[in-house]
Write a structure and sequence with these properties.
By secondary structure, this protein is α+β, with helices and mostly antiparallel strands. It has a single domain, classed as SMI1/KNR4-like (3-Layer(aba) Sandwich). It is about 35% helix and about 15% strand. It has a seven-stranded antiparallel sheet with strand order 6-5-4-3-2-1-7, with helices on one face. The two termini are about 25 Å apart. This is SMI1/KNR4 family protein. InterPro entries: Knr4/Smi1-like_sf (IPR037883). It comes from Streptomyces griseoincarnatus.
Length: about 180
């Protein structure tokens, strides 16, 4: 498993914004509200950095300390949207978490793509990535969020279902 330092290596500007000592997110509250622990690489990323976007396109949903309930409300809203797609027969048989093997959102794009964890494999560190493209593409990646992001930026992960010009050679980095 790649670590946060691998993502920082391919996106060195990220390191300038790292918060020493962590951000103090109430993970117990989040886990209690959502009924699951989140993957450890995501927790590490969220403790080091606030919510950010790459190339004004891909936004990583990171909770704010003190705003954990807003984070969980956003997760629930996205899960409700996926349930509506499923109920309309438009989710390609993907189901929302907490259903077995359900999808759990971690990001979105400016063009309506949604980035999910596929909650199969038991422990959250075994969850993999599924991208729901706005053109009804569903593309899988067998790895973690940090592996996916680092691979996209390094060019070792294909941006399947995403615009062909993403990410740019020198991607922009914006914090909310």
């Amino acid at each position: 498993m790649l670590m946060l330092t691998d993502l920082e290596r391919v996106l060195p500007r990220l390191r300038e914004h790292r918060i020493a000592g962590g951000r103090g997110i109430d993970w117990v509250s989040i886990e209690s509200d959502l009924g699951t622990r989140l993957p450890s690489d995501f927790i590490e990323l969220a403790e080091a950095y606030p919510r950010f976007s790459l190339d004004d396109f891909l936004s990583v949903h990171i909770p704010e300390p003190g705003g954990e309930r807003f984070f969980t409300a956003g997760v629930r809203e996205t899960l409700d949207e996926l349930a509506d797609l499923r109920d309309s027969g438009m989710s390609h048989e993907h189901v929302p978490y907490p259903e077995p093997g359900g999808l759990f959102p971690w990001g979105d794009s400016a063009e309506g793509d949604t980035f999910y964890w596929r909650t199969t494999g038991g422990h959250p560190d075994a969850w993999t990535i599924l991208v729901s493209g706005h053109n009804d593409d569903w593309c899988a990646y067998q790895g973690t969020v940090t592996e996916y992001l680092a691979g996209l930026l390094a060019g070792t992960v294909s941006p399947d279902g995403l615009p062909p010009d993403f990410p740019r050679e020198a991607p922009t980095l914006d914090f909310d």
